[in-house]
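seq:
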Amino acid sequence: MADARCAQCGGNVAVRLTGPPLSCSYCGSDKPLAPDVAARVETLRVDLERHKGRSQQLLGKQVFAGVVSSSWVLTLLVILWGGVITGAATCEPLPKGHTTFATLSGPRLRATDPTSRALVTKWWLLYLPLTGFTFNLALWSVMRLRGRRVIRAALPRAPRAAGAPLRCRCCAADLPEGGAIRRCAFCDADHVVLGSRYQKEQTSLARELDALQSQVGRTLADRDRTATRVAAIGTWSPLIALLAMPAALFVPRTYPVLWALPASFVALTILMLVLTAAGPSLPRIRSLGALGVGDQIIVDTRRFVAVAAVEVWPTLTFPVVQRLVVLRDARDDTAAPSHAVIVDFDAERDIHSARLFEISAAGTALSARDTQGENALRRYAVERAPDEGWADYQALWIVPTIAANAFNGLRCWAEAPQVGATPAHTLTLAGVVAEEKLTLIGA
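struct:
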């Protein structure tokens, strides 16, 4: 952030929105900012605290913004509209001696006899879905551009100097190192790191404060709602053309000038695609359910590395394979795994959560009852990171503790155990972590 002038001695004061109260390093004044600047900085502090958390994070449907350029959307659009247009072209044959192209590109027609009536009907039956298709295409291209802008709004600020950390787009604090997605430790805002792509740098403190206010005031959630609204309009509004198709049987004439409408939609599509292609390529923002070995994840405020994973099928009464991911502290390469998570997804609410387990040594010994029944001891393969596995385990023998058709604890043995053997590890459910406290950083 640009420096301010000390109101007492005129020295430079590094303005920040986080950390201890500001003071002048030259005269020692504890109120170095001019009253108007101090008021703006305090307003920003309050806004940051109010918007802290989910509003500035890449959650839920905001994953849509990272994958909106997927080709399957366009493919589905072409297939659906192609079927409608093909049906309209073949549903009723043209009178002998007339072609579809000549009918569509010819002069205005009037329905004065059965032959011209058939031509007018065919013109409208094809014009309406062609217009709907081009309108849908134009809105898809706008949606694609808006979705990318959601991610561009999450770019960090440039470092203060070469080699210095990137800075938060909301509070200008230094960001942690590592990962394509980084969360500010002070205001919880998420950032997408794209090499040397940053927020636009401002040359004065006033403009810098304006830019920060804009970032804080219009949250990623607001931007996402706008993109989602455009997507909804793009999905449903072109259906008006389909609903209007029965009216083609009654329209008395054609209007070739109306071809300017789909032509303008095609021009808009080309313009949007050019603008999208001119921007930087965006990393794919994976959902939390894609957490894999080698990835980093922030759980609440702690950063972990996933060092192993086990596909667990704990009970025949609830036959769902659940992926248990083993975590160690990301700040200490020599640390032993201390936690594990199972990421759950609520399809109705479109949100993730994670069951967090604490790992401890030993535990309750294997009993004869643990070797019988549907919740009995089973062997599971372990997927490990190449250089930092979980004690080099290739497989684990696991007994789950089941409650409400979900396991809330595990006892693990490194080798096939006999009755009375003490487990190598016991995993105990520590709680459920909401999505706003989870961030998948990636490998």
